[in-house]
Amino acid sequence: MKLAVATAIAALLNAAAAKDERTFAVLRFNNKQLTKGRMDPLRNPGETGLHVHNILGGSGFSTSSKGGDLQKSRCTTAKVKGDNSNYWFPSLYFKDPKTAKFEHVDVFYANAYYFFDATNDDIKAFPLGLGIFSGDSDTRSPPPAAGAATNLDPSKGPVNPVKWTCPRDGNRYDPPSWPADSDGKLAGIGDAVNKGEGVGFPDVNCDGFASPLRADIHFPSCYNPNGYIHVPHLFLEVYWNTPAFKDRWESGKASQPFVLSNGDSTGFSLHADFMSGWDEKVLQHIIDTCNAGTAGMDKCPNLPLGLTDDECTIESMIHEKVDGVLESLPGSNPLTGWAYGGANSSSPSPSREAPSTPSTSRPEASSQPTDEEDYPVKRVQDKPVRLDTGSSTRTAKHGATAVPKEEAPLPSAPAEEPSYPTAGTASQSSGPAASPDCAHAVTATDPAAPTVQLDCRGVRPAAASPRRAARLRRWLRRVVSRLVSSEKCVSHCKAGGFALAGTEYGGQCYCGNELVGSQRLDEGRCETPCEGDASQFCGGGWALSVYSKDGQAVLKGARSRRHFHNHMRRHRGRHS
């Protein structure tokens, strides 16, 4: 039996920003961290920091780094060349209920959303050296009035820029992720509207497929040198590999074993820092021309400096053990909050006292525009290029190293997109770009598997806004399988009586009976290897590989192209 596969991808990558529309692009990173340690050049410049941070970005980072140091970085973890900024946040630890010892929790992956909000003024690139702190590292108490709702507008009450997201298996929230009717004094507080979000740690295992516990941090989008300057609205999401500990604690008992590196057992003190090391020409180009959305900032057209594809790491300046099994938290930070006691800091937090004016370091002189000619983003090839990780392409000074990175499957899209206030925002609306048609045949690796006929189709994604995308996704159910492959997805959908099967992000499976708003595109855009069979491709970021029984698909495109993913329903099944 022949199957047909069609590639679907978001083509809305180069729509210019309009003042009445909000656009955005997600910056992704090549590796999980640049370094890790008690370093914080904003809060403790030139000194050993109070607690451990995970640091992303440029290799110029140090305990006393400034914008000029970042500008001289020899490598960066950011995929977009020209971003030598640093992003850092407190590390997460697991406190073993039996031994009372601490174990570090790995970062699963992190993304930085750059939102370019609807506005009547101009959004300017971050000036070199601008530092921003968001959150309150001292508090052990919930927000004073806003509860678990996200609020970034100080005119509407206390600002709440940080939350936790707990994706659940199949988007099922019974029992709830946070104790019902919690007031924050003994446990975290769940969001009454979005049951996957809350303030403070949840007390259940966050078992969403490829979407474990997530830290969400919004940064302010203006600062006040001489008159307020409108800069991009930065949102940082950090996924932690908490499922690695799921069998070592009892879920749903109004207590949980994870603590932040500052000793906070509540999660209320979640915070993050940012120091800009952007080439301002590159970032301004992205602000003015790119609306890549979740496809990724690395898909923005005509990036002035192109992309990076290397891992970048440096040694920590603080020589102490911060990973593995520990008797105490680095810095000997005591546990505080909830069962451990410890009052909230009496000093007001920067985010609450002056939410519209972030804690900042003074920006340095603007970076000089690059003299290099613009050139387009690397073309995606028919097959991903795999590099030998044993060789080195270059060595950065001051201990920074850059090694080629083996192309790995992209993580699955989160069950919920970041919360974003609805007031004052505008949705995006632009048509998809044209792409060439193509068609050829490939043969499955398994000799017993059917021949797969390949063509290419693209659709506009359901991504006018993160909140809208979340609404469109919330009834979709994901295939539960550690090793998703095209054949498994096809078999699962066929067993359910569906005419179409689709794979995306290397590990998601959709079932449905029709395509909505599909357009044929280059099949190379489905470049993500399947988690269950690396010789097969399972879509990509907003790129859906679609299979049908007879090589035909019911195609509807008249009224609602953005609802494509709504018509490709994810189904749950156990298959090995």
Automatic annotation (TrEMBL):
Ubl conjugation among keywords: no
Annotated WSC domain residues: 450-550
Name by which UniProt lists this protein: WSC domain-containing protein
Keywords of this entry: Signal
Region (Disordered): 139-161, 337-439
Source organism: Ophiocordyceps sinensis
Signal peptide coordinates: 1-18
Biased composition (Low complexity): 345-367, 409-423
Biased composition (Basic and acidic residues): 375-386
Keyword Membrane: no
Pfam family of the protein (one): DUF1996
PANTHER family: PTHR43662, WSC DOMAIN-CONTAINING PROTEIN (PTHR43662:SF11)
SMART domains to which the protein is assigned, alphabetical: WSC
